[in-house]
Amino acid sequence: MSIKIGIYGYGNLGRGVESAIKQNPDMELVAVFTRRNPADVKINTATALVCHTDDAKYMTDKIDVMILCGGSATDLPTQTPEIASMFNCIDSFDTHAKIPEHFANVDKTAKESGKVAIISCGWDPGMFSLNRLYASAILPDGEDYTFWGKGVSQGHSDAIRRIDGVVDARQYTIPVPEALDAVRSGSAPALTTRQKHTRECFVVVEDGADKSKIVNEIVTMPNYFADYDTTVHFISKEELDRDHKNLPHGGFVIRSGRTGENGQNNHIIEYSLKLDSNPEFTSSVLVCYARAAYRMNNEGMSGCKTVFDVAPSYLSSKSAEEIRKTML
Amino acid sequence: MSIKIGIYGYGNLGRGVESAIKQNPDMELVAVFTRRNPADVKINTATALVCHTDDAKYMTDKIDVMILCGGSATDLPTQTPEIASMFNCIDSFDTHAKIPEHFANVDKTAKESGKVAIISCGWDPGMFSLNRLYASAILPDGEDYTFWGKGVSQGHSDAIRRIDGVVDARQYTIPVPEALDAVRSGSAPALTTRQKHTRECFVVVEDGADKSKIVNEIVTMPNYFADYDTTVHFISKEELDRDHKNLPHGGFVIRSGRTGENGQNNHIIEYSLKLDSNPEFTSSVLVCYARAAYRMNNEGMSGCKTVFDVAPSYLSSKSAEEIRKTML
Question: Which of A259, A286, A287 has the highest number of chain B CBs within 10 A, making it the mutation to test binding with B?
């Protein structure tokens, strides 16, 4: 019997979840929930329904796990606690500073409903977090480094788009190769923000816009660009659409640590991702954690969980015997 | 109150565990157990006892977790089931083909005693296994690659030492850079044994030994060398002791997979280790899984477990709140 999945919110992430479900034969998409008029939403799964989000509450017996595909800024803080009061669910909440508050809100409703809700599943937070935890538990005497990119930062692209005279923009975050090499050497360098990443911007402007003023506004923008070496390229709308339409991303989590009676031996643990599609990879993480939520709830667990609380075996479609035999 | 640890077997691995415990303030080494005369064994922890292995059974109330540091060939198959009948315990059993049998034997005694025994904790099996599992659960449509090295293979070094006329030897396993690059490109190549790794041997021979005969015996040795491109260097005993006394190792676990409605987007997940000391890194993994065994048993769990069954949060000395706040 397959695990019955609902998708709550149908943007890039929701479509990614839909295609990921097709790669997992033990799962079945039952319905997509949207705030739009369901009649106007066309999906890629002939056997699934399109329903209004208001009608989710009538489908608690039809769906094993709801995968929330909204945004962290305004959707998930209210949606996840609400959905957890009715369904096992998964989200990719990624506002790191607000995770403790979100956890507490979701934990309350999930404990009341007896459901499992796994929050912040993606790659950062998510797989990168897991790798920080494993590596620091193994090598307590050491330093952690996280590098992001090369990839498109949507928040930074949006910040450029808000500048007067800008039509469209794409911002790439790029790790500095020399910084990566220094970390991998085991020298445990102290690195400033500027030494770790550069930022490269491709910007389309209105006819007659003051380009030097726009460059200045970008490179001096506090929080977003002021602390980085930033390069700005002006290109046409056609070039942007042709060369920069994808959403690649990735990065590196590296721990450099020492062992031995005198700390004489050095070790480097490195985890890296190179992703053609940031939203589709996040979707794939969401889907395997949906399997975990279903199984954990079937074993009687409830409440809010994170990737730290999920034993890896729950993620695989294979049996415990099979993974011990083929993957251990 | 600290977690009280016993070390069962005091070779390279046991000494590594001893120094790793000193990096974990929530742990305390209580005793080292040896098959030798305890009076002849000198350890590096003033506050710990040295006891004979026969006396472990009298110390069940003094030790929370026993870390088994024997070998997989002859020690662990009998030791782990026996120790699991009295103690929570951890081993690094690494004979991949015999894991199901070892698991069954340990599970039986650990269930009877109500203790937790975590087997095959190290880096392969261990961290590499975990990364194979996570990556294949996230990207079900993909291929796995494991590369080992550059590092010393002790089994291969031993095989060379058994050749007539050989005094000592050290064998390095080296991943082929072009194979790594091909995998990272996302082209999902099919690779033969010969295409993935080369083997480099440093050999000390007796005066007057027939070097060409020894080279031929090495490079044609079935299972160990015949399927690889192997290089043999003859060096002096002094050179071997000076340049090859350490036990570095490492490797790469890479998954290349596709997502999207038509599999149009490619993703590379890569985990790698670069270790100055293979036994000390394995020891560090054993120690953090000892913490997990202690906690899991305190929560009422029992039986044989592997890294697949251990939720990551059990490994960290920090609280669940703290890891959510600082690492997620």
Answer: A259
The pLDDT tens digits for B213-252 are 999 999 999 989 999 999 999 999 999 999 999 999 999 9
Q: Which tokens belong to B138? A: 């996230």
Task: Judge: A265–B259 Cβ closer than 8 Å, yes or no.
Answer: no
Assigned token pair, B35: 């098959």
The single residue listed with the structure tokens 């980085």 is: A228
DSSP states of A13-78: HHHHHHHHHTT-TTEEEEEEEESS-GGG---S-TTSEEEEGGGGGGGTTT-SEEEE-S-TTTTHHH
Chain centroid, CA B122 distance in Å: 3
**CB–CB contact B315 A133 (8 Å):** yes
Q: Is the pLDDT of residue B276 over 90?
A: yes
For chain A, where are the E strands, in sequence order?
A: 3-8, 27-34, 49-52, 65-68, 88-90, 116-118, 142-148, 151-152, 166-175, 197-205, 229-234, 249-259, 265-275, 303-305
The ipTM is 0.96
pLDDT score, position A289: 98
**DSSP 3-state percent helix, strand, coil across chain A (nearest 5):** 40, 25, 35
Q: Sheet harboring A229-234: ordered strands across?
A: A151-152, A166-175, A197-205, A229-234
- Residue A163 pLDDT grade (very low, low, confident, very high; cuts 50, 70, 90): very high
Q: Which of A92, A28, A93, A38 is nearest to A64 (CA)?
A: A28
pLDDT value of residue A309: 98
